[in-house]
Specification:
The complex is a heterodimer of chains A (180) and B (414). In chain A, the strands form 2 sheets. Chain A has a 5-stranded mixed β-sheet. A two-stranded parallel ribbon of chain A has the order 6-7. Chain A is an alpha/beta fold. Chain A has helices spanning 6-17, 47-60, 121-131; strands at residues 21-31, 36-45, 65-73, 77-86, 95-104, 109-111, 134-136. Chain A has a single domain, classed as Beta Polymerase, domain 2, CATH 3.30.460. The mean pLDDT of chain A is 86. The radius of gyration of chain A is 19 Å and the shape is globular. In chain B, 48% of the residues lie in helices and 14% in strands. In chain B, strands 1-2-3 form a 3-stranded antiparallel β-sheet. A 3-stranded antiparallel β-sheet of chain B has the order 6-7-8. In chain B, strand 2 and strand 3 (36-43) form a beta hairpin. In chain B, helix 2 (61-69) packs antiparallel against helix 3 (78-91). The chains are: A alpha/beta (180), B alpha+beta (414). At the A-B interface, strand 2, strand 3, strand 4, strand 5 and helix 3 of A face helix 1, strand 7 and strand 8 of B.
Chain lengths: 180, 414
């Protein structure tokens, strides 16, 4: 498959995903003296179309590089961004692709992508323990970073989760946050 | 684990959290059959310090720069570099051109010291301590240069949102050039030691192989993936800062040997050639560095106000000595901390490939093969060997494991 320009990639996602595609944005920024540009694409998809979106990315680039899954607590929702890069190997030709999914906090589930990209296992395990998003069909669902003695229902990255505070070590002379 | 009730043929050795090969806290459960590694399981989180949590709940973004600098002692430039790139995108801050060049010089000086440090550790792991002392003596020169230019050997604290905090003056440049000339003069000697020495070849050739296919599927980064023949380097692919002005090419081992094996020896080649590349980059930067200011907003209260009002998100990507480092940042107006901060250090993703690298190898090769990805975690001293058949535990300390490795080198030399 020949190389597409950023807008072409957005259009190809739109065509491949149909109703599961919500929106696509292209971001560019100039750097340093020669004002060369680097480019990034955000693709907003519904959860049902997410697995298909990753498969579509594999059709654009044989081995898309999964950088990380980042997750943000947005109040009533949780936003996951799967950061990928494609077209690496040449000077300034690489494009970052961020696939974004918004999940309702009442139904925090996302299908695993380890069947397509085996290297995604660590970041999926981390998302599971830190944000409380359940990754369905994950081959290895153990904790990655958190200690075994921390209760299962505590997710440190959640903003609404105040259960963690009693585990914080308070330095001498300081008061715990929120208590007078 | 594959040990069941009937056939007791394999043992499990938990190596770490205090690990023999590395001065880093990680636990590897090696399943062994005789001398051979059959399977590997990794346990992380022994020293999880909740740095992201602090950045999201306690610190303002400027404090987070100094915290980011302390994520890692060896690569203490790439994390603040990444964070400032991400926040500058989120808050739409433009960086002066001179600052872009100074940032790159700092990052490349770090790469030189980090790769030479690694070379010393690798020599130590195979029991070649003469080379270990030699390389670390050679490394002192770059540490002195860093101290001379930035004021500190390790945590330099020169990155700031919208530029750098200290300039490189005209008087400092001759000392820098003198140091770079020193490295050019000894480079040939280093090359001969690491690439032509028989002992190094015997211990590193065809050890810890990571084939191209696996490297791509397990999304490895940095010298580890380049040694498997993938020309992937953030400085080239998605150049940031002054790298966008320079024509940088990712280094793969076939430029020296003509073939790609993907073993420890290839990783040595990549790191060694990158030292030479970094010297060239620094020289280019010194030559082309434009004049001008180094900071967009020198007044701290105004900078903090600007960051509190900023709304948006940014991704900073930096090629650290060990591979691609990335920070994702989301900022909300009226919130004084970062709203989301996700840090991914290169070793995080390279560890996924460790089971593939270690499988099928001898225990004595584990230290060098694991060290070859240059993992960055803290210091270890002993491992416990559990005999699954009898349930007996015995402690293997660092010295014993190291002795096994040294013994193997000696046997090969015979």
């Amino acid at each position: 498959m020949e190389k597409l320009n950023p807008q072409g990639i957005v259009d190809s996602f739109k065509k491949a995903l149909g109703g599961g595609f919500i929106n696509g944005e292209v971001y560019e920024r100039e750097v340093a003296v020669k004002k060369n540009r680097f480019r990034r694409i955000w693709i907003f998809v519904k959860r049902e179309a997410f697995h298909e979106a990753v498969q579509h990315l594999c059709r654009i680039q044989e081995y898309p590089h999964l950088v990380i899954i980042s997750s943000s607590d947005l109040g009533s929702d949780v936003e996951l961004i799967y950061h990928f890069t494609i077209y690496y190997g040449n000077h300034l030709e690489e494009i970052s692709v961020g696939i974004r999914i918004t999940l309702d906090k009442k139904d925090l589930k996302i299908p695993t992508i380890t069947d397509i990209i085996p290297g995604a296992i660590f970041t999926e395990r981390e998302t599971q323990e830190m944000m409380g998003v359940e990754v369905t069909d994950i081959p290895d669902g153990r904790r990655l970073f958190l200690e075994g003695d921390l209760p299962e229902n505590i997710h440190p990255w959640r903003k609404d989760d105040k259960k963690l505070e009693k585990y914080l070590r308070v330095l001498p002379g300081r008061k715990p946050k929120g208590k007078e | 684990m594959a040990v069941n009730n009937t056939e007791k043929t394999t043992y499990t050795i938990p190596v770490g959290p205090i690990h023999p090969a590395l001065k880093e806290p990680i636990q590897l459960d090696l399943e062994i059959d005789g001398e051979q590694v059959v399977d590997v399981d990794i346990h992380l989180g022994q020293v999880h310090r909740s740095i992201e949590w602090l950045g999201m709940n306690r610190n303002n973004p400027v404090q987070s720069i100094y915290l980011a600098e302390r994520i890692c002692g060896i690569c203490n430039v790439c994390h603040p570099f990444c964070l400032v790139l991400a926040v500058e995108q989120a808050a739409d801050i433009v960086v002066p051109e001179r600052a872009e060049y100074i940032r790159v010089i700092a990052a490349e000086m770090e790469r030189i010291h980090s790769h030479i440090l690694w070379a010393g550790v690798a020599a130590h792991e195979i029991g070649f301590d003469t080379v270990f002392y030699l390389t670390w003596r050679v490394r002192e020169e770059i540490m002195d240069m860093i101290e001379y230019v930035f004021g500190n050997r390790i945590t330099k604290a020169i990155y700031q949102f919208g530029g750098v905090r200290r300039d490189i003056t005209e008087e400092q440049i001759p000392r820098l050039k003198q140091g770079l000339d020193y490295y050019k003069s000894i480079f040939e000697q280093l090359r001969r030691i690491f690439l032509e020495d028989e002992t190094v070849k015997m211990r590193c050739r065809n050890v810890g192989i990571l084939p191209y296919e696996d490297a791509m599927k397990l999304v490895t980064v940095g010298p580890t993936v380049r040694a498997s023949g993938v020309p992937k380097d953030v400085r080239q692919d998605q150049a940031y800062s002054a790298y966008a002005d320079l024509d940088i090419k990712a280094i793969t081992p076939d430029v020296v040997t003509g073939t790609v094996v993907g073993d420890v020896y290839d990783r040595i080649i990549v790191r060694l050639l990158e030292v030479a590349q970094s010297i060239e980059i620094i020289e280019d930067c010194i030559k082309n560095m434009p004049e001008g200011p180094i900071l967009t907003e020198p007044k701290m209260p105004r900078l903090l106000k600007l960051l509190t009002d900023a709304e948006g998100e940014g991704v900073g990507r930096v090629e650290a000595p060990r591979g691609e480092d990335i920070h994702y940042v989301r900022m909300e107006a009226g919130v004084s901390t970062l709203s989301t901060w996700k840090v991914r250090a290169p070793t995080y993703i390279n560890l996924v490939a460790v089971p593939t690298i270690l499988k099928g190898m001898q225990i004595a090769d584990v230290p060098i093969a694991f060290a070859s990805i240059d993992p960055c975690m803290s210091c270890t001293n002993r491992a416990i060997i559990t005999d699954k058949a009898t349930g007996k535990k015995s402690v293997v300390d660092y010295e014993t494991m190291h002795r096994l490795s040294v013994q193997k080198t000696k046997e090969l030399q015979r």
